[in-house]
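Sequence design from tokenized structure. All designs in this work follow the same two-part layout: the structure record, then the generated sequence. An example of the structure record is given first.
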């Protein structure tokens, strides 16, 4: 990983939850949504927003510079709306997350304000009043946010995730954006757009239907059969709800989920190349001592050829 770079991270509820906890955020988690269903979102209430991952279509551009494909540009956004331009590669997931969190930390947006922690509070206070481009630059230069983000980079001694090649540019590109309610409006916060996009009036009660409608219209612009989308809700820690209502079964289920996330994230951070190499050396040494090394190699070649023929 190159110094100062931002690595690609996986779109995963456990990764995102651990990432924001590393930044000092308390009482928030991510829940993957399997279907575009308003009732599912409502069942997770309070929902602070959703993070949408989609295949970026370079040929889909607004009809005019002043008109997005859906909604309207908020060219004079309110002072309390946090919006940052995307100025760095590979960090759109973290930027979409922050776009929701930093707009849900006060009672004007939600009855359950998010405790964003000292680091993000300092960052938000510092960038208050900045234009979107300058906020994006401040984010790109935040060592705290970059370190938390890169902690979940894929561990590989062979690939530098911060370096993009011509082949990368020609392949499929994916992008994250956030949707959240601020000041009684539903906002689409996409750092690649010049302004926040307003989708009209929206309160906590109407948020599920409103955001699902926006997402359905967006997905409808893709060719039929396109399924490469991912949607996650940003919700209050479900363990807190379980404790409040005295649901022991729900609490145990959520605790098991957290243990699974912790284990999976440990594996993501681990590089097993050295371990695998030592195992192979040990097996090869044993076969050589037994005088069966050549036989073992030939057998492996034969099995590989069989698999290739079946494929």
């Amino acid at each position: 990983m190159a110094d100062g770079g931002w690595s690609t991270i996986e779109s995963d509820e456990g990764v995102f939850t651990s990432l924001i906890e590393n930044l000092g955020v308390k009482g928030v988690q991510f829940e993957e949504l399997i279907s575009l269903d308003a009732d599912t979102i409502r069942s997770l209430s309070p929902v602070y927003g959703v993070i949408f991952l989609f295949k970026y279509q370079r040929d889909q551009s607004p009809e005019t510079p002043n008109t997005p494909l859906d909604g309207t540009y908020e060219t004079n956004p309110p002072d309390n709306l946090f919006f940052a331009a995307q100025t760095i590669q590979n960090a759109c997931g973290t930027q979409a997350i922050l776009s929701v969190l930093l707009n849900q930390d006060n009672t004007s947006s939600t009855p359950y304000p998010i405790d964003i922690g000292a680091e993000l509070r300092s960052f938000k206070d510092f960038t208050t009043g900045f234009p979107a481009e300058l906020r994006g630059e401040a984010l790109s230069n935040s060592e705290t946010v970059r370190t938390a983000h890169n902690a979940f980079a894929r561990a590989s001694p062979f690939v530098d995730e911060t370096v993009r090649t011509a082949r990368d540019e020609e392949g499929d590109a994916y992008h994250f954006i956030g949707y959240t309610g601020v000041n009684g409006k539903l906002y689409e916060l996409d750092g690649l757009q010049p302004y926040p996009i307003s989708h009209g009036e929206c309160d906590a009660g109407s948020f599920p239907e409103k955001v699902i409608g926006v997402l359905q219209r967006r997905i409808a612009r893709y060719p039929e059969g396109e399924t490469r989308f991912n949607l996650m809700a940003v919700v209050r820690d479900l363990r807190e709800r379980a404790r409040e209502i005295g649901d022991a079964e729900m609490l145990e289920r959520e605790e098991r989920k957290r243990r699974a996330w912790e284990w999976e994230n440990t594996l993501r951070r681990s590089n097993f190349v050295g371990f695998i190499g030592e195992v192979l050396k040990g097996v090869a040494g044993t076969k050589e001592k037994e005088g069966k090394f050549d036989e073992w190699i030939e057998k492996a070649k034969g099995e590989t050829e069989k698999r290739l023929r079946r494929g």
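Residues 248-269 form the longest helix (22 residues). We note this feature because it recurs in several other targets discussed in the main text.
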